[in-house]
Amino acid sequence: MAGLKCSHCGEGIRYHDMPNGIEHTVFTMKNWGKIVSTVYDPNNERMHEEWNTPGPYLYRADTIWEDFENDYFVAWVCPHCETIAVFDNSGLHVRAVYTPIDDKTPVDINAEKYVVFSDYVWEEISESSIPVSEIPDKFKASYYAIANSDYVWLFNSQIESDCSKVCKRIAIAAE
Ligand SMILES: [Zn+2]
Fold first, then answer.
1. Running DSSP on this structure, what letter comes out for residue 9?
2. Strands 39-40 and 59-60, sheet pairing
3. What is the Å distance from ligand 1's center to 41 Cα?
4. Does the reported pTM lie above 0.90?
5. Gap from CA of 5 to ligand 1 centroid (Å)
6. Cβ(114)–Cβ(144) under 8 Å?
7. How close is the Cα of 13 to the center of ligand 1, in Å?
8. Which of 19, 94, 136, 147 has the most beta carbons within 10 angstroms of its beta carbon?
9. How close is the Cα of 81 to the center of ligand 1, in Å?
10. For each of the chain's 175 residues, which pLDDT tens digit applies?
């Protein structure tokens, strides 16, 4: 998808290949945990004999982008009003839109937790075959998020009192 109209403010949002802070790559915390616990091994073999303990082992053959392409989805943040458009797994259709609100709706701590990378960070993570052990240190998540069907809560860290923004789901404008 290269462009859409913001469902909240109506501005056109365009995105090309260069990072510009619009596109964000989102993993569930569970999937991200799985990815950062995999071993990077281009030959898909055990790299060290001392690991000769019962498996199963998870291996990453190349970039995260290639090895885990079904484990994330993309969201766009409108540069004008910060409304979030969440795409389906195909990346072609917006499946939900959330817009920032002022009130402090309590966090639904039982809802799904996510790790979010801005396109600037994601380009670095995804363009090369980086040992997964280096990723948590070198590449900080841009946001953490908790979301249910009605709200998204954004956090600057994994501390749940550190909520920086609440967004409420709105109806999607007809295309
Ligand atoms: Zn907007």
1. T
2. parallel
3. 42
4. no
5. 8
6. yes
7. 8
8. 147
9. 4
10. 678 999 999 999 988 778 889 999 999 999 988 887 777 666 655 555 455 554 455 667 777 778 888 889 999 999 999 999 999 988 889 999 999 999 889 999 999 999 999 998 888 888 777 766 666 666 788 999 999 999 999 998 887 778 889 999 999 865 5
